[in-house]
Specification:
32% helix; five-stranded antiparallel beta sheet; 5 strands; single chain; alpha+beta; HIT family, subunit A
Length: 142
């Protein structure tokens, strides 16, 4: 299923151009047009799913197997020290089509702006409250 107005659906269908680095029957990866560093790739499912929670169960394994492959290729191909993998869901998601950022990293690359300030729990009880809120919903979602 393609969304006519979605730029990533346009890339997946071949209507919009991209510097594609990988494509199979379920996903494709291409260079980000606004990279954090050269080699920053986006891996998308070919079909339109807005967020990770919308992705069907049967696509999770192949998509993340491909993310692993692209991460290894970015690291080795660009002689990077490692990679940064990220997914935004709604907030900070510039295109409402699931995409996995695979970013080459190097020691001393000074990537700081992509990270948000960390907020400590006020107490052990505060952490326990948050834990309970998440755990109480997990069984509902299974």
């Amino acid at each position: 299923m393609f969304e006519e107005s979605c730029v990533f659906c346009g890339i997946a269908s071949g209507k919009n151009s991209s510097f594609t680095v990988f494509k199979d029957s379920v996903s494709m990866a291409f260079l980000d047009k606004r990279p954090l560093f050269h080699g920053h790739c986006l891996l998308i499912p070919l079909e339109h799913y807005e967020t990770l929670t919308d992705l069907p169960e049967d696509l999770i394994k192949p998509i993340f197997t491909n993310a692993k492959l692209i991460a290894a290729a970015v690291k080795k191909g660009l002689k990077a020290d490692g990679t940064f993998i990220a997914i935004n869901n709604k907030i900070s998601q510039s295109v409402p089509h699931l995409h996995i950022h695979i970013v080459p990293r190097r020691h001393g690359d000074k990537l700081r702006g992509f990270f948000f300030p960390r907020i400590a729990y006020h107490s052990e009880e505060n952490a326990a409250e948050v834990q309970r809120a998440i755990v109480s919903v997990i069984s509902e979602l299974k």
